[in-house]
Specification:
This is GDSL esterase/lipase At4g10955. The protein contains 14 helices and eight strands. It is globular.
């Protein structure tokens, strides 16, 4: 029977279990406490799953009662306000969700409570199906090369975000994204913060565009040695380049502007795509502890690749947009690490882990 089900899923005759909310969603969350970080995380991650399912509904031509996506937002009292479509392949890459009860929410005597968002703008990651695979993989490559900002998908996404903020203000808008979508949300969050509009952001397994030392190197001593050497080299090159680039101070200010923005960052140590964020912040803390803070202050806001290519690392632009600021240079974050065992890459990188009530989390606030 299971084999028959697999064939039917492949042929688009039915949805996979992971797409069906009543089977895979957090159906125990019948009432949302917006002060509860697990509840907010569950809502944000489910709305990202809604975008994945919207695109799978489109690909498999599931309409009407066969469609599965609406359950992922209706359960939490959201409506679908806008569907974001990539003009290159016609795929659905994001969506704007609106909270139904925003205007009836009781804001009185809630000085210490968090209000719900009016809008959540969510972005999916890569879907390895023929209708979307080619475009998504090209954008994944752009993430690695740090030039996602020039893609038509990202340009469209930032326009939608700016429009929502212009209408309702930044306090009422959340960003959420997973994997490639996490990269879109992270980059958009940086741009909006530098413009003076920081947004509450939920970044699930965003790619770290550098070698995943955390996953590749087992010895803590060797990890520390590699990272320490890397910081020395980056700081040295940055100081050498500084004399040739007069806008360096402005770039440093640009990096510091981000320090007040504290996105919620979700990573799994078994996921090579995002695990290096753990080492990135751990190393930064260690450098300050051992008295090498001055070196690390320079190193943490720079990437060797962008320095050598002339793009700088602190937010400046260059004629070659692919040598602009690396995505992972992040001053502050509230990081959730999933310490539960992940049997394979699919589970370690998947979105479903973030609303699993059984997952073990380690929570660390990093502020620059």
């Amino acid at each position: 029977m299971e084999e028959e089900d697999d064939v039917m899923v492949k042929e688009g005759l039915m949805a996979s279990q992971r797409e069906i909310f009543s089977i895979s969603g957090p159906i125990h969350l019948t009432s949302i406490d917006w002060n509860n970080s697990y509840h907010r995380t569950s809502v944000a991650s489910c709305l990202v799953q809604a975008v994945y399912t919207l695109e799978r509904d489109r690909q498999q031509n599931r309409i009407g009662l066969k469609s599965q996506a609406n359950h992922w937002w209706e359960f939490f009292n959201f409506t679908l306000a806008e569907t974001l479509i990539d003009d290159s392949d016609g795929s659905i890459y994001g969506a704007v969700f609106e909270y139904k009860h925003f205007f009836s929410y009781n804001y009185h005597n809630t000085h210490h409570s968090k209000p719900p968002p009016r809008h959540v703008i969510a972005f999916r990651g890569t879907i390895m199906k023929r209708h979307s695979r080619s475009r998504d993989l090209k954008l994944d490559l752009r993430c690695v090369r740090d030039c996602l900002q020039d893609s038509t998908r990202f340009v469209h996404a930032i326009q939608v975000i700016q429009s929502a903020v212009a209408k309702t203000g930044n306090a009422a808008v959340w960003l959420a994204g997973h994997s490639l979508g996490g990269a879109v949300a992270l980059l958009a969050g940086k741009i909006m913060t530098r413009s003076g509009f920081p947004l509450e952001s939920y970044l699930f397994n965003p790619p770290f565009s550098s070698i995943p030392i955390e996953k590749l190197v087992k010895s803590e001593k060797l990890k520390n040695g590699v990272r320490f050497a890397g910081s020395l080299v980056k700081a040295g090159v940055a100081i050498a380049v500084k004399g040739r680039h007069h806008n360096r101070g402005q770039e440093d200010d640009s990096f510091m502007k981000l320090a007040s923005w504290i996105p919620y960052l979700y990573v799994n140590p078994s996921d090579p795509i995002c695990s290096e964020y753990i080492g990135y912040f751990k190393h930064r803390n260690k450098m300050f502890e051992i008295g090498a803070g001055k070196i690390e202050r320079i190193a943490t806001r720079n990437s060797l690749r962008s320095l050598l290519s002339g793009g700088g690392g602190g937010g400046g632009s260059s004629s070659d947009s692919c040598s602009s600021e690396p995505l992972h240079l992040l001053p502050s974050a509230y990081m959730t690490i999933n310490t539960s065992h992940s049997p394979n890459f699919k589970r370690a990188h998947g979105i479903h882990q973030w609303w699993d009530p059984m997952f073990n989390g380690e929570y660390v606030l990093h502020q620059f």
